[in-house]
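Weekly structure sync, notes
Attendees: PL (lead), two postdocs, one rotation student
Agenda item 3: pending single-chain targets
PL asked that the sequence for the first pending target be pasted directly into the notes so everyone works from the same version. It is reproduced below exactly as submitted, 112 residues in total.
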Amino acid sequence: MYFRALKKTAQDVYISDPIDTDKDGNTLTLIDIIADDTDITEEIDIKLKLQKLRKIINHALDDREKTIICYRYGVGGCKELTQHEIADRLGISRSYVSRIEKAALTKLRQLF
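Predicted structure, written out during the meeting:
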C-alpha cells in the first residue's frame, strides 16, 4: 500500500518546490515564476475613477475645453498632443490653449 501511494504522488509538483536556479545560483520555485504582482483593488479603483472622470468631462466642460483636454491627455483614444500641435489643429494660439487647459483642469479638480 505504501509503495502504491508513493507511485500515485511521484509526479506531483508543489508550488514551493525548487524547480530551477537563476543566474546567481538562487533556487527558483514555481511560485516565483507564476507570481503576479498586480493589485486587483488598485486596478478597480483606477477604473472607477476613470469612469467618474469621463462623466465629469462630458458634463462639466464645454466643447472647446473637452477637445483640448482630450487631445492634451489622450482621453477617449485620442493621441496625446502638445499645446502647440493642438493650437495648430484648432487655429488658435498656444497661449490660448494653455489658458483653456488650465481653466478646464481647475473645473475638473473641483468636481472630482
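Discussion points:
- The chain has two domains: 2-34, 40-111.
- The CA atoms of residues 87 and 97 lie 6 Å apart.
Action: rotation student to compare against the earlier draft before next sync.
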